[in-house]
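Postdoc handover notes: sequence design on the structure in folder B. Input tokens:
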């Protein structure tokens, strides 16, 4: 269908979007289009977008606008570059994007990835008669091929959508209600991945802990973990977990399943109960700390990461201080910090918001400083240990170094042994003795 054409996919946002991009790439490749490394060489410029925060909106607008000046590839079969926007912004703005960005040819929603080839074909045939489809139908498109970044690592969506309606969040409006993928299908995919050499599976969902509430027999997330573990895959991870739905059953799996990696991303968002209520998070700081205690009892040394929003409407200095104290107390391996950004249509957008920008910025900086110190301290406990590292490839930090991931998901830089080539190691797990720990990485050599 698209022989002699080329494409480039730009991804904004979360792992779910990255996974969707891999499927778009797989789909276009299966139709004869060739992936290229830069926009300059692409006939199809595909954007998989995120609208969770304002910055992604701004980046998309900036990038697509500036593309007008980019020359068309000389050997393009169409004599034109086609621009397609999908993902959350496509879903949210629909045809409105054609007004904001006149050089856009195709808009598609979060449930319409498989429609992209047809839409592109329509645009080619009509020389860009703007084509769009935003369909509310939500189901799993597990039949789409995918072009994975690393052949040994796979993302496996187990739910799509979200039923939680945190008051700041746009996701439930653009991704729709939560739908779970049947457990047999998940287990089948996991087994197939293992047969194809996949070593690490990351289960994905906006809130994996509420898995199965819409399915017959109401299987739970711990059942999914058991089923995926039984595939024999070496490493299992999952994201994201909502604290209100994290059950003892799931926590116990960190002790009983040897292939479930000792790392958990558990977004807390705020350390103030007053703000948590306004966010509609449905847990208290005390309940959250209770989960952390249980996790650490069951799996000592487990790496914990979180998301924090600074500057939620009405946040006082006291509220912020409570967040700061919580971060200090938990000792996270990693904290993703966000400045609150107003999303039209969400309840928080209507809440009075009077904190001056400089105040929020200053709080944000204080938190970032703390997080960096905490990451450094937490990493020190691994110096002197021997850790299994899944090697990904050459490190960006220097020749002669390979980069990989520890069980706790830390980046580990490993010396390439004198007689080895990095290619021999990529996708394998090596034992590395850790000699040095920094904020964002560990260093070691093959044990
Ligand atoms: N403003 C700032 N941060 C947000 N997040 C979600 N919505 C917003 C918003 N409107 C953050 C939350 C979430 C992460 C993926 O993005 O912390 O966990
Ligand atoms: Fe957004 Fe809350 Fe759902 Fe996460 S759980 S996607 S923050 S509404």
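Designed sequence:
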């Amino acid at each position: 269908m698209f022989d002699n054409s080329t494409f480039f996919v730009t991804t904004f946002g979360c792992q779910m979007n990255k996974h969707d991009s891999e499927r778009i790439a797989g789909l276009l490749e299966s139709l004869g289009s060739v992936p290229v490394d830069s926009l300059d060489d692409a006939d199809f410029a595909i954007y998989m977008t995120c609208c969770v925060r304002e910055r992604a909106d701004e980046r998309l607008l900036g990038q697509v606008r500036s593309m007008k000046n980019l020359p068309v590839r000389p050997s393009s079969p169409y004599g034109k570059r086609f621009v397609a926007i999908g993902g959350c912004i496509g879903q949210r703005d629909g045809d409105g994007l054609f007004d904001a960005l006149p050089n856009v040819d195709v808009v598609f929603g979060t449930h319409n990835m498989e429609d992209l080839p047809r839409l592109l074909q329509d645009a080619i045939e009509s020389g860009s008669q703007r084509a769009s489809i935003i369909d509310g139908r939500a189901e799993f498109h597990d039949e789409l091929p995918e072009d994975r970044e690393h052949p040994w690592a796979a993302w496996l969506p187990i739910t799509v959508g979200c039923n939680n309606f945190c008051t700041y969040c746009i996701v439930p409006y653009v991704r729709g209600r939560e739908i779970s993928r049947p457990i047999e299908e998940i287990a089948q995919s996991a087994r197939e991945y293992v047969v194809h050499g996949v070593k690490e599976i990351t289960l994905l969902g906006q809130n994996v802990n509420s898995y199965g509430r819409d399915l017959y027999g109401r299987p739970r997330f711990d059942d999914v973990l058991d089923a995926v573990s039984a595939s024999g895959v070496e490493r299992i991870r999952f994201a994201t977990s909502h604290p209100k739905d994290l059950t003892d059953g799931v926590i116990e799996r960190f002790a009983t399943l040897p292939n479930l990696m000792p790392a958990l991303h558990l977004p807390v968002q705020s350390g103030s109960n007053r703000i948590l209520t306004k966010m509609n998070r449905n847990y208290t700081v005390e309940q959250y700390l209770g989960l952390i205690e249980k996790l650490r009892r069951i799996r000592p040394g487990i790496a914990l990461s979180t998301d924090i929003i600074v500057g939620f409407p009405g946040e006082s200095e006291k509220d912020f201080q409570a967040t700061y104290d919580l971060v200090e107390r938990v000792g996270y391996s990693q904290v993703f910090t966000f400045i609150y950004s107003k999303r039209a249509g969400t309840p928080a957008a209507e809440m009075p918001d009077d904190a001056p920008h400089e105040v929020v910025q200053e709080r944000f900086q204080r938190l970032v400083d703390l997080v960096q110190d905490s990451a450094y301290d937490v990493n020190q406990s691994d110096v002197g240990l021997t850790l299994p590292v899944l090697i990904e490839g050459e490190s960006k930090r220097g020749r002669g170094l390979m980069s990989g991931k520890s069980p706790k998901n830390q980046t580990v830089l490993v010396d390439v042994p004198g007689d080895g080539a990095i290619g021999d190691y990529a996708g394998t797990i090596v034992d590395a003795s850790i000699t040095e720990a920094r904020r964002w990485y560990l260093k070691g050599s093959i044990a």
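Context for whoever picks this up: The chain has a mean pLDDT of 92. Don't rerun without checking with the PI first.
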